[in-house]
């Protein structure tokens, strides 16, 4: 455990602390969905550190203290988190979510994020999406799309744009945090063998009613063609 606050890792420090054997979050009993999500959310960014400190009901402080002192701080300080620490978090979430399989079964990362962000910590939705005139709030966006023959080794920018287009979605506003779940794959089928991370994401064309330039004349666009 590490009760001392640690900032997220960056640049050379991230490479030094996180690279090598016995680094990352130790897997156990189908914990990969949670391990990957926690590593992505906290190892190298402070965007969601409010989850660690947000005032919450007395019964939920156990979740915050385990998350903060047994997972996030050790990960940032030593680059390693024991499986037992994640199991303690899973046991707490089992009680909060009234779902006994949280400690042993493989879950959808979205189910985990919804439970811990909404039902346990009471955070406001991070994303506001609109489709067909209806607006909805959510905590992460999962990429759904048909197989694209021209996308052999896509980057995240391409996948997000294709997914938004095929689902007729728009962002109502620029999100403070944009959590994206890559296309599903299993042992028997992978939609893409590799996906290139986009270090920056341009959401200009994904925004609802955002002023954009005409691709023909360069002036303010009046019409949008999919």
From TrEMBL:
Organism, by scientific name, is: Upupa epops (Eurasian hoopoe)
Matching entries from InterPro entries are given as:
Papain-like_cys_pep_sf, USP_CS
Query: Which residues lie in coiled coils?
Result: none
Keyword terms of this UniProt record: Cytoplasm, Hydrolase
Instruction: Indicate what this protein is called per its UniProt record.
Output: CYLD hydrolase
Give a GO molecular function annotation for the protein: cysteine-type deubiquitinase activity
């Amino acid at each position: 455990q590490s009760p001392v606050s640690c900032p997220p890792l960056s640049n050379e420090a991230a490479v030094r602390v996180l690279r090598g054997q016995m680094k990352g979050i130790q897997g156990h009993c189908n914990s990969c969905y949670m391990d990957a999500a926690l590593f992505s959310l906290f190892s190298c960014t402070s965007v969601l550190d409010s989850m660690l400190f947000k005032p919450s009901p007395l019964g939920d402080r156990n979740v915050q203290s385990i998350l903060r002192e047994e997972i996030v701080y050790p990960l940032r300080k030593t680059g390693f988190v024991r499986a037992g620490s994640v199991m303690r978090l899973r046991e707490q979430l089992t009680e909060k979510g009234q779902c006994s399989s949280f400690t042993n079964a493989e879950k959808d990362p979205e189910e985990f994020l919804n439970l811990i962000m909404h039902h346990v910590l009471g955070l406001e939705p991070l994303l506001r999406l609109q489709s067909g005139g209806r607006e909805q709030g959510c905590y992460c966006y999962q990429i759904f799309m048909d197989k694209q023959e021209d996308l052999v080794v896509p980057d995240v920018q391409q996948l997000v744009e294709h997914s938004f287009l095929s689902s007729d979605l728009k962002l109502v506003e620029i999100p403070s945090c944009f959590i994206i779940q890559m296309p599903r794959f299993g042992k028997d089928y992978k939609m893409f063998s590799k996906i290139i991370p986009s270090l920056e994401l341009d959401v200009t064309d994904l925004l609802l009613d955002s002023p954009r330039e005409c691709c023909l004349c360069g002036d303010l666009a009046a019409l949008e063609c999919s």
